[in-house]
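2024-03-11 09:14:02 DEBUG pipeline.ingest accepted 1 chain
2024-03-11 09:14:02 DEBUG pipeline.ingest length=161
2024-03-11 09:14:03 DEBUG pipeline.predict start
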Amino acid sequence: MVTDLTEARAWSAAASVLDPEVPALTVAELGILRSVSVEGDTATARLTPTYSGCPAVLAIELAVEAALREAGFDARIERVLSPAWTTDWITEDGREKLRAYGIAPPVKASGKAALFSEPTVACPRCGSSATTRVSEFGATACQAQYRCTACAEPFDYFKCL
């Protein structure tokens, strides 16, 4: 018999998995864990990749599956591609954790125009908006490399998608 408590336990197990590329965030805080349902002994987690070429997708799916199995469930993963993930799905807690980890969180901006504009990116260390982009790519393809002209520290910015 599936209860709300059973589904909450399955959600909690899946939601606790850390992103392998940005281990300061869980898959729930990143917004890629869409839902978890339980039918019988099987928990199904639905995940949306951050983008189609993300090299961490399989690692994340395997980690969520393992977390569900450790919680006592038979596990199933469904990859959900529509609607496509957007950085707007990162939770407020996730944005604060990115900042504390030293990565500037993405500017909240829905719509296609956000993809073609240069955002004002605040330094996650000192908070200054006097920053310049050094490279379109940072530690991962989802990030760009910036430098703060106020504190002179380099940092990654999680690009708006």
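2024-03-11 09:14:41 DEBUG pipeline.report The domain at 4-79 is CATH 3.30.300.130 (GMP Synthetase; Chain A, domain 3).
2024-03-11 09:14:41 DEBUG pipeline.predict end
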